[in-house]
Write a structure and sequence with these properties.
The chain is α/β, with parallel strands linked by helices. The protein has 2 domains: about 210 residues, NAD(P)-binding Rossmann-like Domain (Rossmann fold); about 30 residues, no CATH class. The protein is built from 9 helices and 7 strands. It has a 7-stranded parallel beta sheet with strand order 3-2-1-4-5-6-7, sandwiched between helices. Strand 1, helix 2 and strand 2 form a beta-alpha-beta unit. Helix 4 runs parallel beside helix 5 and helix 5 runs parallel beside helix 6. The radius of gyration is 18 Å and the shape is globular.
Length: about 270
């Protein structure tokens, strides 16, 4: 088999995503928005996929204004394979192709394993695992058809590696471990098509959603935040923008020999 090597680009040039098209699930807010913004700041056109339609529209309007790239917003239930298939056809038609996918859509529910209903358990798996697979599958189909390869970046969690405490969410942890292994499997299958598949595993981040959840718990929320911070070597939560450099690297030509890999971004939380 002929050995192919990436072009030896200037490292700054290698980070440019100009001329690329990126789709981001869960891009309307939080970590998904920050990663989508990072791709746009690096020159990529972006397609925001999120059930939060109004927030998605606001997100892409902001990105178009501040980053000067074409951006579109799409409402979709990623756990519905038929919706996902139609959606990716429409995104490719609108933007003229697809080079990058980031699967940041995900849900969680805190609770004791003994108390989860079957419906709750299935829903978490449907969104976090099935949704990741359906989107990756459709992105890969379009990348294979175009013949240019691409980068698919899944979003797992440090919960794929550790068991969170003091709060419990066993189904969520299991889904993120599944996403991590799915990433490795797809990386092996699709490497011959020049499609790289990698995963980012965030730790605790100071997102607006986490602030709301902790705030609703009053003193218990304050104590939980202190626990998270105290068990992190950096003694703090991550800021959403601290994922921007990681996602751009994995999407860029500078990561041309990186596939199947997991980058844990947790301030060292999983080291102890």
């Amino acid at each position: 088999m002929e050995q192919l090597s990436a072009k030896n680009l200037n490292v700054v040039e290698g980070f440019s995503l100009k001329g690329k098209v990126a789709a981001v699930t869960g891009g309307a807010r939080g970590l998904g928005f920050e990663m989508m913004r990072a791709l746009a700041e690096s020159g990529a056109e972006v397609a925001c996929i999120d059930l939060l339609d109004e927030m998605g529209q606001q997100a892409v309007t902001q990105i178009e204004k501040e980053c000067g790239v074409k951006a579109s917003s799409w409402s979709c239930d990623v756990s519905n394979d038929e919706e996902v298939t139609l959606l990716f056809d429409e995104i490719v038609q609108r933007h003229g192709g697809l080079d990058i996918l980031v699967t940041a859509a995900g849900i969680n529910k805190i609770g004791n394993a003994i108390d989860y209903t079957a419906a709750d358990f299935r829903k978490i798996f449907d969104v976090n695992v099935s949704g990741t697979f359906f989107c990756a599958q459709q992105a890969a189909k379009h990348m294979m058809k175009a013949g240019k390869g691409g980068s698919i970046i899944t979003v797992a969690s440090m919960s794929a590696t550790i068991t969170n405490t003091p709060q419990s969410h066993a189904p969520y942890n299991a889904t993120k471990a599944a996403v991590k292994q799915l990433t490795r499997s797809l990386a092996c299958e699709w490497a011959s098509h020049k499609i790289r598949v990698t995963t980012i595993s965030p730790g605790y981040f100071d997102t607006a959603m986490n602030q709301t959840i902790l705030g609703q718990q009053g003193e218990q929320g304050v104590a939980l935040r202190k626990f998270w911070e105290g068990h992190c070597p950096q003694k703090r939560l991550g800021q959403p923008h601290e994922l921007k450099g990681v996602v751009v690297f994995l999407a860029s030509e500078n990561a041309s020999f990186v596939t199947g890999s997991e980058i844990i971004v947790d301030g060292g939380y999983t080291l102890w």
